[in-house]
Design goal:
11 helices, 2 domains, 19% strand, five-stranded mixed beta sheet, Nucleotidyltransferase, domain 5, alpha/beta, homodimer, 12 strands, globular
Chain lengths: 328, 328
């Protein structure tokens, strides 16, 4: 990051995901000075989520005795399709009720600080490109596998965000034209088949129809509280149903990756998000599908690797984005 | 195109497709000075196709009394996955038997002229971007719908060719994970469902199982000689079976376009290749699918338009590519 107007001042970066909100103060050297978390509780709707977001920001500033005037800018990475010019979250399959919410102006209005809004997976891609697994890699794609599946695209060393700021909705690519309808309105989306939500849904479906699994004990009989994380734990413990459910999702993930490899011929695909914690259990079968089905030259050209920055990728990337906007 | 080394000298551009070979002499202003054609007859295998290609070049040069030393360069657009660094056609689903063919060096060796090799759809994208439907459009995707389905990607005004020169194999994106196996080794590829070959195959299949169609008379009872072009003719004449076959392919094409729109958020998708001659019969249902299923903001941001340069897109784009390489 280069020196700029607001030189030396940190960015307050916020990552608004389907499950949690992370806010951080980040120096212009990319160091996280302070962090604050809260749950998103997305089902409570936009206004409640926005209030919770603003209170996370307030907490973070007051805990460090920082006034908003001491910030270079605020940068928000949000899980949804962004209208970059207008600063809107236009739609978010993982934030129910969000439709054309002017999030940039709401935050800018409250704190009186220059505010940016980008997609959360785009931010994570930028974070991993600058500080993580994708350092020095010019053409890469980041997939965030969590509640949903997000994507961020780095082309020729720069974030690609398309003609209106919403490129990278990789989770909403149809891979099964006869598949289930997604909340985005499309059919057979990768997200419906390989996200954390899909993994939990499939485990619940199979257990409800009478199959046995250690998951039933793990959740104390409350089948509906099975999450992808718990399926991962059961699989690590050798539970056959959990292993099968993850293998199925991994195969779908591999199909999505084949599409990305054949379309982008990327140097690297980085896999982040909560599901990435499943590690080789998820990535090995997906890589196998890529080896078997993608164009050989392209399959050889790509490395498929786990993300390195964990939960910080989004806030770090959002900060990079803000510093780049100010210096550009 | 800028002035350069070899200033004023034209490029000999050649488009090697699954069906035909087109060669042209093109000025540094993008004017086609002379053209020569031949059939590819791809089933005869690589050596026969290369010989036919070289003889098209010889014909073109001798008919115009041009010596190869009077060329800026030779630029070949080939239907297949290209290893740009090595100048190889590594694989081509529509040129049977082509595997790691050093086409660049074969041509360079024979004519002693600097030679370039790129993918044919990438070339067409560059052609349409510089001289056709995509003039002034910075983020666009071109689809060539012919024997196969090719793709070319322009990002930030430049051809994007990926980490090893093979980006844009859009026809080999899985849209039906339970679909038929493609000759590329992948499953349920867009090309298997929406290419000219797919349209002909589906019409033949339905007529063979006893359905009635004016196509049977159009081909004089030789069902196996039905082509997508003939299906298009029958559909224009109101033949119900032909109309249904095209509608089915158009719906699949729409699904592929939804994926491109959600991933790239492009300003424009240009549709070229032989199938594009079907016009609105093909494009209207595909656009409808995009309107219904892609993210709304992204669907509104994209224009889906027919290509303007017809058969010349590939040779014009190959020439642009060569001039850009020399001036870079």
């Amino acid at each position: 990051m280069q020196e700029s107007k607001g030189q030396g001042l940190p960015v307050l970066a916020l990552d608004l995901g389907g499950t949690k909100i992370i806010a951080a103060i980040i120096s212009n050297q990319g160091q996280v000075i302070a962090r604050e978390y809260n749950l998103t509780l997305a089902n409570e709707g936009p206004q409640a989520v926005i209030n919770r977001m603003l209170s996370v920001i307030d907490c973070l500033l007051s805990s460090r005795g920082i006034d908003s005037s001491q910030l270079n800018s605020i940068s928000i990475a949000a899980a949804g399709a962004i209208d970059f010019d207008k600063g809107l979250v236009t739609l978010s399959p993982n934030l129910p009720g969000w439709c054309d919410i002017p999030l940039r102006d709401i935050v800018q209005g409250k704190y009186g600080v220059n505010t940016f809004l980008i997609n959360d997976a785009s931010a994570a891609a930028l974070g991993e490109h600058c500080f993580g697994a994708g350092k020095g890699v010019d053409n890469l794609i980041l997939l965030t596998l969590g509640t949903g599946i997000g994507g961020g695209i780095i082309i020729n060393g720069k974030l690609y965000y398309g003609s209106s700021g919403s490129a990278g909705e990789i989770g909403h690519m149809t891979i099964d034209v006869n598949g289930p309808r997604c909340s985005c309105g499309n059919i057979g989306c990768l997200e419906m088949l390989a996200s954390g939500t899909a993994v939990a849904r499939e485990a619940i479906r199979r257990i409800r129809r009478g199959e046995r699994s250690s998951l039933t004990e793990i959740v104390g009989g409350k089948i509906e509280s099975i999450t992808a994380e718990k399926v991962g734990m059961a699989a690590q413990g050798g539970d056959p149903l959990a292993l099968e459910v993850i293998l199925k999702a991994a195969n779908y993930l591999g199909v999505g990756m084949v599409n990305l490899v054949n379309i982008f011929n990327p140097e690297m695909i980085i896999v982040g998000g909560g599901m990435a914690k499943m590690g080789d259990l998820l990535l090995d079968p997906a890589k196998q599908v890529v080896r078997e089905r993608a164009f050989q030259l392209l399959a050889q050209a790509v490395s498929i690797v786990p993300a390195q920055l964990g939960n910080d990728a989004g806030v770090l990337g959002a900060a990079v984005f803000a510093f780049q906007q100010v210096t550009d």
